[in-house]
Every structure is written in structure tokens, then in C-alpha cells.
Amino acid sequence: MPKETISIADFQKLDLRVGTIIKAEKVTGSEKLMKIEVSLGQESRQLIGGLAAKFSPSELEGKQVVVLVNLETKKMMGLESQGMLLAAVLENEPVLITPQEKLADGTQVR
């Protein structure tokens, strides 16, 4: 079911960038959460996401992903998440949104 229509101005507020996962580890005490460090070129960010049930840390490390960079910071299980990885859901499993070809970390997605 489609969500409410937004304007192009609303869409342009999103800061979507390509990043490379440089470190991933399962969050202690959680079956689903993974702590992920993503390089965005000039900076790196810590993200917390529900990927641990599907991916091992070694499957994620080195993978390029799309990150919503300007999402407000949120604490989960005492850890700060500074953005969000984009993923689709297929049969209740996350499928990461990845670039078709290798791009520089920090490349904007429009």
C-alpha cells in the first residue's frame, strides 16, 4: 500500500549517500541487531540495524550500501545509530540496496 505523496522538495531533504561497511559486529544481548561502521568518504558513521539474523559480520564487511545520512540520531540498546542503511524486505528478510558498480564512498544518491 503506497504511503502519502510527498513533494520533490520533501524528497530533496533526504541525504542519501553510498558508503562501504568497514566493520560489523553483532550487538550483545540482541538476536537481530548489528553494529555497523560505514565509511562515507570524509567521515565514518556508526549504524545499528536489524541485520544479524540474516548476515554474519564477514558477509557485510566490504559491501557498499546506501545510507540515509541525515536521519536524526537514535539510541538502541545503549548504542547510538547515526543514520540508516536502505534495505528492501523479501519474505521478512532484509535485502540490502547496493550500487550496481563500485562508487566512491560519499557519492550522493538522487
Description:
The chain has 110 residues and is mainly β. It has one domain: Beta Barrel (OB fold (Dihydrolipoamide Acetyltransferase, E2P)), CATH 2.40.50. It has two helices and ten strands; from the N terminus they run αβββαβββββββ. Strands 1, 2, 3, 4, 7 and 10 form a six-stranded antiparallel sheet that branches. It has a two-stranded antiparallel sheet with strand order 5-6. The protein has a two-stranded antiparallel sheet with strand order 8-9. The longest helix is centred in the first third of the chain and has 5 residues, at 8-12. It starts with 7 loop residues before the first helix and ends with a strand.
Counting helices, strands and paired strands, the structural category is mainly beta
CATH superfamily: Nucleic acid-binding proteins
Radius of gyration: 14 Å
The CATH architecture would be: Beta Barrel
Low-confidence parts: none
Distinct helical segment count:
2
Structural shape: globular
Largest sheet: 6 strands, antiparallel
Question: Mind telling me the CATH class?
Answer: Mainly Beta
In terms of DSSP E residues, the strand content is 35-45%
Q: Span from first to last CA?
A: 23 Å
